[in-house]
Specification:
heterodimer, A: mainly beta, 5-stranded antiparallel β-sheet, 4-stranded antiparallel β-sheet, 7% helix, B: alpha/beta, Rossmann fold, 5-stranded parallel β-sheet
Chain lengths: 166, 314
Amino acid sequence: MSMEKGTKDKGAKSDRKHLVVSKIKNGTVIDHISPGMSPLVLKILGIGPGSKEAVSMAMNVHSSKMGKKDILKVEGKFISDEELNKIALIAPEATINLVENFEITRKFRVEPPEVVENIIKCPNQYCISNSNEPIKSRFRIFTDGRKVVAKCDYCGKKLYSLQDYI
Amino acid sequence: MSILKKEGVGRFKHLISIDELTKEDIIYILRLAEKFEPIAKGKKVNKSLEGKILANLFFEPSTRTRMSFEAAMKRLGGDVINMTAQEVSSVAKGETLADTIRVVGNYADIIVLRHPLVGAAKFAAENSIVPVVNAGDGAGQHPTQTLLDLYTMMKEAKLEGSKIALMGDLKYSRTVHSLIKALALFNTTIYLISPPMLRLSEEFIEGLDTKTSKVFEVSLEEVIDEIDVLYVTRIQKERFPDEEEYRKVAGSYVITLDLLRNTKESMIIMHPLPRVNEIATDVDKTRHARYFEQAFYGVPIRMAILSELLDGNG
């Protein structure tokens, strides 16, 4: 993880008050992550010990839109839309910037997927997905107002604060 | 496309959950069961499932569900193989349900499964080359029980627009949960009667489709004179912290002749059985008691389901 303080260049007025993470040449920037959720976002994306990607993480930085937010920059990796949309489970306001040669080539907001497999662990100890069967946990995702809700495809258990089950 | 349904109306690959069925699907099965009733009683002969084999895989004890599936299959000329309690214990030594299902699917044309874990039947269906019928998966679903309950109401009282009181353990009873969801499709008024600690959860009530049906929490005395159906379930001892508490509560949820003085003549009493002492035995002789008929209706309902899943064409 690398983090550097904003420089005091004349033309970089907005950088003065904030901590920023370094720019990436090629890769994926995940912005507007709900504050504190970036480690879980990495987990959802399968980035952790043993991963080769260079990752910059900023947590609880100022955001005019959200108050506070997290930012992740993954160097050298273009993550698929399908993978990125899983982020919406815990950070529905996250925005994605795909960067090529320091330029943003595509920008979009994440959207919750209809189904996720092997990401959420069902808390129902009597659910078949928690047995020793060759089975992947599977949840149907829907929204209830602004909340993202997950329903276990096997036992029907509904989950509201998904970060507790990832 | 659901894994549970084939193309076309009323055609199913598996029967896992009552939630997968539309009102039209349910009515279709009930009408089919009506056709099978004389055969279920032995008054007519039908061998449309001759040459087919049903495998009963019961990982939990059951008498009436297993026997009524067996009776249904045999009444239609089919054969039945059972996994005995001893064989279940050998499975428990290590073979996964997924493997058991794959193996048994090569011996039989249809699998009836009861399993202690919720979602087991759905998982089995995902791994099966033959149709799977859920005969109870832990606290989850027991769709053939729901269908036979609806059939009993249709035959012995009325289903559409009826007033139904559900009494007893509404919190843990899978029978009650599945039944309420299905009843909500038939413009019913549902009265819930239970001890405070065994109330239906708020989450469940909020999740109900109440576009056409209404749900109220009441006492039996408030509604006894207007209901068409009184559905009684067992209050289980193990739900209570001590026996004294259980006896106090259970004792106040007993149907006696005295309680039935102000009911409609046509009101029927149902119970999924086995009963312990929720219904006094002298109620059995009244015109209201329909729980033994209800147990019989399990046979034509299961005949309809087996026939449908195996393309028996009646």
